[in-house]
Design brief:
Structural class: mainly beta
Helix content: under 10%
Number of helices: 5
Number of domains: 3
Largest sheet: 9 strands, parallel
Strand order of the largest sheet: 18-15-36-34-32-30-27-24-22
Radius of gyration: 55 Å
C-alpha cells in the first residue's frame, strides 16, 4: 500500500507542474478562447481553457489559493485584487503538502459542449474537488476542459454555421431552333426553360439585327415564354437570343437563327371580274400595306367599286394564316361557270363578216409595228389578220388608234409591248393554242401597261419568268388556264408580279359583227 501511494504522489506532482505551466501559457496567449459562447452569458465572460486532473487524487492533499503569475504569493481571501497584478487567484494543491492534482480557474462555469458540467466548481471547496463523471477523468489521467472566465464580450451566442444556399441556375432551348420567313411575315418562338434553385423572373428576347428581324414582345414573364420574329427585310441568318433572369441576374440563355426571304409572287386585279372553275389563289404578303400597297385581291376602279370574283374551288388572298381580303366590299361568289356556247376561236371565226378583207400573215415572226403598218382595212373599219401556224409577234408599240383583230391557228408568242390610244384604239388576239408573254416584255415607262387588248385562247395564257411586273389593261380569256410566271423577288414586298386592269373602252370599240344577234319576229299592222 505504501509503495502504491508514493507512485501516485510522484505522478500528482508532475501533473501539478504541467497544469501550472498550462495556465501560465493560457493566461499569456488566451489560446482556445471561444468568445462569445452560448454557455457564457454573463457580462465580460468568455470560454477559456482550463485543466482538470484526477479528482480522486485531489482529495489526498490540501488546497491553497495562489496568484497564478507569482506562485510565491497567496490570495487567502480568494480575490484577484490580493494578487496585485499577478493574478488571477487560483486554487491548487499546496506544493508543500503531499501533492494532489486538481486545479481550476476562479469560479468557472462549464462551457465544454462535450463535457457540459466538467469542472463545475462554484465557490470554495475546502477539502478538494468533487468527482465529475462527465469530465472523462480517470485515476492519474489528465483531462482538458473549458471553463467560463473573463474578460470577454459575453451575451451574444455564436451563430450555428449553415450551408449556404446554391445559386439559381437553369437550362434553356428554343423551339424551333431555326426558321426561314418572308419579309412581312412572322414566326413564333418558344423558349423552354428548366430552372433550378429558384424561379424565373422574366425572359428577355433580342435580335442581333433588328433591321432584318425584329422580335416582339421583347420580354415574357409567364410560361410559356414566347416571342414573334418578324421579317423586316431580306437577309440573314439573324440570331434571336433568349436570356433567362432569375434572382435579378441572367442565369442561362439560348439562341435560334432566322433567315428572311422575299415574299412569293402574287397577282392582283383592278375593277375586274374574275371567273374560274378552279381555285383562286393570290398570296398577298403581310408587307403589303397602304399607302404604298393595297392588300386586297380586287382593287376599286374609277366607279369606286371592285369586280366580283367567281370561283369553284378554294380561295386564299393571304400569305400567312387566314384567307386575306378579297376587296373593299368583300364581294366573292362561289359557283361553276358552264356556258352552252364556248366563246373560243371557232365561235369568233364564224362571226367574221363576209366582206372582211383577210390579211394573211405568211411569216412565223413579224417585226414590231407590223400590224400597225401592214394590211388593208375592211369596210367595218377594222384590220383583220390571219395566221395559220405558230406566230411570234415582236410587239406593237405604236398601234395607237388602229383597230386590229388577229386570228392565230396555233401558238402566239408575244415579244414586245402592245400600246393603244385609250378610247380609240383596239386590239384582239384569238388563238387556238397558247398565248405566251415572253421574258423581257416591259414598257419603257414604269407603271404603263405592257399589253393592252383582249386575249382569247382555247388553251393557256402564260406569262414567262421575269423579274419585271407585267401589267395588262384589257381582258384575258383562257379555256385551259392562266399560268403566271413572273416573280419580282424583293419587289414582291409591295407589288404584284402580274396586274390586270379592266378596260371598258375596249368594249365600246368591240367589232359589231362579234356582238350576239337576236332576231325577233313580230307581226305588225300593214
Amino acid at each position: 500500500m505504501r509503495t502504491f501511494f508514493k507512485s501516485n504522489l510522484r505522478l500528482c506532482v508532475i501533473l501539478m507542474v504541467l497544469s501550472i505551466i498550462f495556465l501560465l501559457n493560457a493566461s499569456g496567449t488566451k489560446a482556445q478562447i471561444i468568445d462569445p459562447h452560448p454557455a457564457c452569458s454573463a457580462p465580460n465572460s468568455a470560454c477559456w481553457p482550463s485543466r482538470a486532473f484526477n479528482q480522486w487524487s485531489c482529495n489526498q492533499c490540501s488546497f491553497v489559493w495562489y496568484c497564478q503569475n507569482n506562485m510565491n504569493r497567496t490570495c487567502p481571501g480568494r480575490t484577484n485584487a490580493e494578487c496585485g497584478g499577478f493574478g488571477p487567484c487560483i486554487q491548487i494543491c499546496d506544493p508543500n503538502r503531499p501533492p494532489g492534482g486538481c486545479q481550476v480557474v476562479n469560479n468557472p462555469v462549464a462551457c465544454n459542449l462535450n463535457s457540459p458540467t466538467a469542472c463545475g466548481f462554484q465557490g470554495s471547496i475546502p477539502n478538494g474537488c468533487s468527482y465529475d463523471q462527465y469530465s472523462g477523468c480517470d485515476i492519474n489521467t489528465e483531462v482538458q476542459t473549458l471553463g467560463c472566465c473573463g474578460p470577454g464580450s459575453g451575451g451574444t451566442p455564436t451563430p450555428t454555421p449553415t450551408t449556404p444556399p446554391l445559386p439559381p441556375s437553369c437550362a434553356a432551348n428554343f423551339n424551333p431552333g431555326s426558321a426561314v420567313i418572308n419579309v412581312g411575315s412572322s414566326q413564333g418562338f418558344t423558349l423552354n426553360v428548366n430552372p433550378s434553385n429558384g424561379s424565373v423572373d422574366t425572359v428577355n428576347f433580342s435580335s442581333s439585327n433588328s433591321g432584318l428581324v425584329s422580335v416582339s414582345p421583347a420580354g415574357d414573364a409567364s410560361v410559356p415564354y414566347q416571342t414573334l420574329a418578324n421579317g423586316v427585310s431580306i437577309g440573314g441568318p439573324v440570331v434571336i437570343s433568349g436570356r433567362v433572369v432569375m434572382g435579378g441576374s441572367v442565369r442561362c440563355s439560348a439562341t435560334a437563327s432566322v433567315s428572311v426571304l422575299a415574299p412569293g409572287a402574287w397577282w392582283q386585279v383592278k375593277d375586274a371580274d374574275v371567273i374560274t372553275n378552279g381555285g383562286l389563289i393570290s398570296p398577298i404578303p403581310a408587307s403589303c400595306s397602304l399607302p404604298v400597297c393595297n392588300p386586297v385581291f380586287s382593287i376599286d376602279g374609277p366607279g369606286t367599286s371592285p369586280g366580283v370574283p367567281l370561283f369553284a374551288g378554294s380561295y386564299d388572298f393571304n400569305v400567312g394564316v387566314g384567307v386575306g381580303t378579297v376587296s373593299s366590299t368583300g364581294w366573292l361568289a362561289r359557283g361553276s361557270y358552264l356556258a352552252s356556247t364556248a366563246y373560243n376561236y371557232a365561235f369568233f371565226d364564224r362571226l367574221v363578216p363576209g366582206d372582211t378583207v383577210k390579211n394573211a400573215i405568211l411569216f412565223s415572226s413579224i417585226t414590231p409595228n407590223y400590224l400597225k403598218n401592214q394590211g388593208a382595212i375592211s369596210p367595218d373599219g377594222y384590220y383583220w389578220f390571219f395566221r395559220s401556224g405558230d406566230l411570234i409577234m415582236q410587239g406593237e408599240p405604236t398601234l395607237a388608234s388602229r383597230k386590229v383583230v388577229l386570228f392565230v391557228d396555233g401558238n402566239l408568242s408575244i415579244d414586245g409591248i402592245v400600246d393603244l390610244t385609250q378610247g380609240t384604239g383596239f386590239f384582239m388576239a384569238i388563238v387556238t393554242g397558247d398565248i405566251r408573254v415572253n421574258s423581257g416584255v416591259s414598257h419603257p415607262n414604269v407603271g404603263e401597261p405592257e399589253l393592252e387588248g383582249i386575249f382569247v385562247t382555247n388553251r393557256n395564257f402564260v406569262s414567262s419568268l421575269d423579274s419585271n411586273q407585267l401589267i395588262i389593261r384589257g381582258m384575258v380569256s383562257a379555256y385551259g388556264g392562266v399560268i403566271l410566271g413572273r416573280d419580282l423577288g424583293g419587289g414582291n414586298v409591295n407589288s404584284p408580279s402580274e396586274f390586270f386592269e379592266y378596260a371598258p373602252d375596249l368594249l365600246f370599240n368591240f367589232p359589231k359583227s362579234f356582238n350576239l344577234k337576236r332576231t325577233r319576229w313580230k307581226e305588225v299592222t300593214p
